[in-house]
Design a protein that fits this description.
Shape: globular
Number of strands: 7
Helix content: 25-40%
Number of helices: 3
CATH superfamily of one domain: RutC-like
CATH topology of one domain: 60s Ribosomal Protein L30, Chain: A
Distance between the termini: 31 Å
CATH architecture of one domain: 2-Layer Sandwich
Radius of gyration: 16 Å
Strand content: 25-35%
Largest sheet: 7 strands, mixed
Order of helices and strands: HEEEEHEHEE
Oligomer: single chain
Length: about 120
């Protein structure tokens, strides 16, 4: 006996930009999960890298029909907490007032020492 069709549809998983280690976007049950986003221009300071990461997040969300106002949760990883204010300056200029997500910011050793910030977000579709 199979699942009812509506249940089968509600549990479908769509993956976008699939690579050998991760998918950049996974959509399940009207929720969008983004892989950790990093800047491509690694010679930028923390604010510059944050702005680049936020632009990538917005582009990926828009690709699947979501938007930054629908971000539910954000986890921000900083290589050095000394960059907290610079990251927050870029974040505050980008986030939509009244639509701020739940958020955590932690210091972590990132995969490349040139990375200053990495962000992971979950959003509603």
């Amino acid at each position: 006996m199979g699942l009812p069709e509506e249940h089968a549809m509600s549990t479908s998983i769509q993956r976008y930009h699939i690579g050998p280690r991760l998918a950049e976007i996974v959509v399940h049950n009207n929720t969008v999960y983004l892989a950790g986003q990093i800047a491509e221009t690694l010679d930028k300071d923390a604010r510059g890298q944050t702005e680049e990461v936020l632009a990538a997040i917005e582009r990926l969300l828009n690709e699947v029909g979501s938007e930054k106002q629908k971000i539910l949760s954000a986890t921000i990883y900083l290589a050095d907490m000394a960059d907290y204010d610079a990251m927050n300056d870029a974040w505050s200029a980008w986030v939509v007032p009244g639509h701020t997500p739940a958020r955590a910011t932690v210091e972590a050793r990132l995969a490349d020492p040139r990375y200053r910030v990495e962000m992971v977000v979950i959003a509603a579709l």
